[in-house]
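User: Can you write out an input/output pair for a complex, sequences first and structure second?

Assistant: Here is one pair. Inputs:
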Amino acid sequence: AQSVTQLDSHVSVSEGTPVLLRCNYSSSYSPSLFWYVQHPNKGLQLLLKYTSAATLVKGINGFEAEFKKSETSFHLTKPSAHMSDAAEYFCVVSDRGDYKLSFGAGTTVTVRA
Amino acid sequence: DADVTQTPRNRITKTGKRIMLECSQTKGHDRMYWYRQDPGLGLRLIYYSFDVKDINKGEISDGYSVSRQAQAKFSLSLESAIPNQTALYFCATSDSIPEQFFGPGTRLTVL
């Protein structure tokens, strides 16, 4: 069975400061991991994905995430937050060979001017 | 044009009414999915289909049914809507890889 825990339901940062969104996962097999972003009144957009290649994954809009098997974590970071980063972020896991996705509860990011 | 479209985008209905949400995709993917999103719960899988003849229940299928009319079309029905089915509904598609592509969502309110 697979599951995801997003450790923060809400993160507030100042524009220009780093963003860290924490995600721990549970998976019976080698997982695929994803981060999706949902802007207000929009659908879900894929930010980045890990599928067993490099453990440091770079995504769109300056985001990156590091897969740490020993810690069962896949935290999302961005060095400098922008106002447009205000959105809800979902960490998602899929067991390899099983194409069903399990979503975390989401982290809402607020960016202060 | 969007690869995954959902109609309607917003719907308000009354308890007991039958509702159909439609999803169409132009990505040529075989696999299609229906999810619902509730605040603080992320997205939960309602039904999924790996091809026209293969339909499977997800984790929260009670009160819902689906129809896969063609490779590109996957509809979700609420036979008798109830207020706790008020949610944001997403359709998604995928190929033979785990990554899924999501539609814009349908906001359903059941009064």
